[in-house]
Write a structure and sequence with these properties.
Helices cover 80% and strands 0% of the residues. It has 119 residues and is mainly alpha-helical.
Length: 119
């Protein structure tokens, strides 16, 4: 009977030892996967941060352009009727030349973006 108990203890110990090794292996694998995922997240956050900086810069430039435009509109003197006809200007056709088929607002956005990316 002692021999039977010894064999059972050996089997139980071996099963316990194997379970511990499996657990340690699973923990190491989980740690490795976690480190890999964290690295990938850091790598993906770099371009996102760069894009956010570009967005912030564009927003600030847009605010600046809009504030300048608002200030310019409030300070632009109105032409007399004679001057309007003389210069061939109408409120619907501003004096600055726009690209055909492009609204003034779109043109300023295009100019803003080209200025931003040309720096």
């Amino acid at each position: 009977m002692d021999k039977n108990i010894g064999e059972q203890l050996n089997k139980a110990y071996e099963a316990f030892r194997q379970a511990c090794m499996d657990r340690d292996s699973a923990v190491k694998e989980l740690q490795q996967k976690t480190e890999n995922y964290e690295q990938r997240i850091r790598e993906q956050q770099e371009p996102v941060s760069l894009q956010q900086m570009i967005i912030d810069k564009l927003k600030s430039q847009l605010l600046l352009v809009n504030s300048r435009r608002d200030n310019n509109y409030s300070h632009v003197p109105l032409l007399e009727d004679g001057e309007t006809n003389k210069n061939n200007l109408t409120p619907d056709h501003p004096h600055d030349k726009m690209k055909p088929g492009m609204s003034k607002d779109k043109e300023s956005k295009v100019d803003l973006l080209s200025n931003l990316f040309s720096k």
